[in-house]
Automatic annotation (TrEMBL):
2 residues (Tyr-56 and Arg-59) present in a large hydrophobic pocket are probably involved in substrate specificity. They are important for desuccinylation activity, but dispensable for deacetylation activity. Its cofactor is Zn(2+). This is NAD-dependent protein deacylase. NAD-dependent lysine deacetylase and desuccinylase that specifically removes acetyl and succinyl groups on target proteins. Modulates the activities of several proteins which are inactive in their acylated form. The gene is cobB. It comes from Qipengyuania polymorpha. InterPro entries: DHS-like_NAD/FAD-binding_dom (IPR029035), NAD-dep_sirtuin_deacylases (IPR050134), Sirtuin (IPR003000), Sirtuin_cat_small_dom_sf (IPR026591), Sirtuin_class_III (IPR027546), Ssirtuin_cat_dom (IPR026590). Its EC number is 2.3.1.286. CDD domains: SIRT5_Af1_CobB (cd01412). Binds 1 zinc ion per subunit. Zn(2+) binds at C117, C120, C136, C139.
Amino acid sequence: MTDIRNIVVLTGAGISAESGIDTFRDAGGLWEQHRVEDVATPEGFARDPDLVQRFYDARREAVQKVKPNAAHEALARLDAEWEGDLLIVTQNVDDLHERAGAKRVLHMHGELLSALCSACEARHSWSDTLFDQPACPGCGEQALRPDVVWFGEMPYEMERIYTALRRADLFVSIGTSGAVYPAAGFVRDAREYGARTLELNLERGEGSYWFDESRQGLASHLVPDWVANLLAG
Ligand code: APR
């Protein structure tokens, strides 16, 4: 793959599964434990803010007890050694990519360790709870919500993502079911712009048909292998 210079990597919950973070749609996943409408929509938040805040408080606490795994570490190595363009677009709201050392990371669905003020729209690093309605450090209003993108809301930095997809020579999808748009459509966008496409996932995702190549297995095995081969040139 010597003609590869610009790479876009899309990651999903599957890359963090081996670190002990539940995925959404696998057996026993988050969407089996909670109704999406109750905990991941603006309407659900308006209806029962306490339920939603406690749901994300529990996830925020849990993510601080786990560690990055070999798949996160391999992408951090790629980030450090790859001289071309690289953008790791993650659907995940955990900070495991950054804790593994990756820098070129974009959180399109937001971050658990950030609070967004609905009054002044400021963002604040946040590792504590929000159900007790703390005041916004900026404007003092009790209007802080989880800085995550709920269903029906616009994902973050879409322009930057599409710019990277337009320039990509290689698009790699890791640990995502391909069930949620717009992320699920990135493989077709990348193809349209001439990129090679590779899926690394435990099982074939919903958009697997659109990939030039699909490898099944654990992310902690597939990703280090792929990165080592790529860097070996
Ligand atoms: N290694 C590789 N892949 C794995 C592993 C693993 N250890 N464990 C699970 N997977 C795969 C599953 O086979 C599945 O295809 O990861 C995928 C996880 O899919 P989802 O649970 O649907 O998570 P994701 O694709 O990230 O969800 C997308 O949906 O609920 C919303 O906003 C939320 O960002 C999320 C979006």
